[in-house]
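New to this. Please check both lines:
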Amino acid sequence: MLLRQIQYFMAVAESHHFTKAAKQLFVSQSALSQQINKLEDDLGVKLLDRISHPITLTPAGEEFYRCAKKIISDINHLELQMQHYAHDNQGTLHLGVITGLGKLPLTDILSKFNTEISPQMQFSLTNCLSKKLCHMLGNHEIDIAIMAVPDDFPTDEFELFSLQHEPFLVILPAGHPLTCQTQISLQELQAENFIFPTAENVSYDVFMAACQKAGFTPNIVTYCNSPGQRIDLVQSGLGVSLISTSGFAYFNNHADVVPLPLSVPLYKHIAMVRRKDNNHLPLVAKFWEYIRTNYGQETVG
């Protein structure tokens, strides 16, 4: 049993799809399948139920996944710890980011930091939803996350540094009776059908709490995490939705929808987050300080 085989299995187990896992790993689907077949042959058990769609884990696969997840976490932690012995300006900074970073110029930040501060370092970028990034931070899979802050953010475990508070917009299909207004309240939308992100998305919690504070539980007809697809669904007349200002500017491809600001603003809190411990690599401390000095608002936790 090889580490590579474990990593291949984990990718399939988490994506429930051979094609998606192969793309994620940058290998051919046949090579991925061969390695997992060999792993199962060596173990003498079937780990995956290939007949089901999407692919599911067998009972043995569930147990293997639990154990393998801890192994991968320990290896990632070991790799990070060993970098303490490398030169301060060398090594890899493992950075987790969400898709919607508002006006934060991430590519410029990484380029400038690499050029001005640590020319010999490398970045390893992981793109996930914020709740997943919190989990990865806790498992030592990444060093720093730039993410939307959940309402139940564990300040006892993580340190947070605010980067920006980005307002959300309401988007309505063209021709909707409320599009003649210059702003809108959530109370005016209580009879509408809503298109929400999934519960794994921090924005779901923000939207749900705001609607309930406005005195109603939204009638959610569709769940969709992609801002671009939410715009398309609103355009089709399926319902109304909320989207960050930068998300609307980036993903709106001349869609026939109308954005309106909320009369009581609702914000996505974007922050830089790391674990509260004393084992940060020199690169982590340098990057944290660079962002704090040049792009931040305030420290919390």
Observations:
- The two ends are 42 Å apart (CA to CA).
- The chain has ten helices and twelve strands.
